[in-house]
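tokens incoming
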């Protein structure tokens, strides 16, 4: 099949779930992110609990210049040592590669950080649509009591750098009871 013959898929606009061909899935548990939490021991005890799942529609391979990928994330509600459930977060390796996200359901925060580690948030609620400039690290946090579901579109060649987030984190953490 050539690149001009990509069959459409279905995006369920109520649930955010994708159905069709070329859809990759992944899951992360609380324990998978053990080094990212403020309380690693609590994360070890949380171990196998589902933290988030993703589906990614890959009309092109990862890394193809000019291609766009589309996917969902379902970030579960909960906390680890009082810290709200969150995604790992990343920088794009190519800092001019931007991303766009729209919230399907739930409530939470899109956390953004610049290269000087200034960190701020955008509120996520159904329909909120977010533009992530390529030079900002980004992570999502579920501050609600139901799954936070959102869709994103991003350039296939943006690259993902998780290492510096693991090492340094973001400039701010988000705990139950805090005001955002
Ligand atoms: Ni990204």
């Amino acid at each position: 099949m050539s690149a001009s013959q990509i069959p459409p898929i279905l995006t369920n606009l109520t649930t955010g779930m994708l159905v069709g061909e070329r859809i990759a899935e992944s899951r992360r548990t609380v324990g998978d992110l053990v080094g990212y939490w403020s309380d690693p021991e609590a994360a070890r005890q949380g171990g196998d609990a589902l933290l988030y799942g993703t589906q990614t529609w890959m009309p092109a391979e990862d890394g193809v210049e000019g291609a766009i990928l589309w996917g969902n994330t379902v970030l579960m509600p909960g906390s680890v040592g009082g810290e709200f459930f969150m995604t790992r977060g990343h920088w794009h390796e190519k800092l001019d590669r931007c991303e766009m996200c729209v919230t399907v359901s739930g409530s939470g925060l899109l956390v953004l950080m610049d290269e000087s580690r200034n960190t701020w948030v955008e509120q996520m609620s159904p329909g909120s649509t977010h533009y992530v400039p390529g030079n900002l690290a980004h992570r999502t946090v579920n501050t609600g009591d139901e799954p936070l579901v959102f869709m994103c579109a991003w350039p296939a060649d943006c690259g993902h750098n998780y290492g510096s987030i693991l090492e340094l984190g973001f400039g701010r953490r988000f705990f139950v009871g805090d005001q955002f």
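note: The chain has one domain: 3-168.
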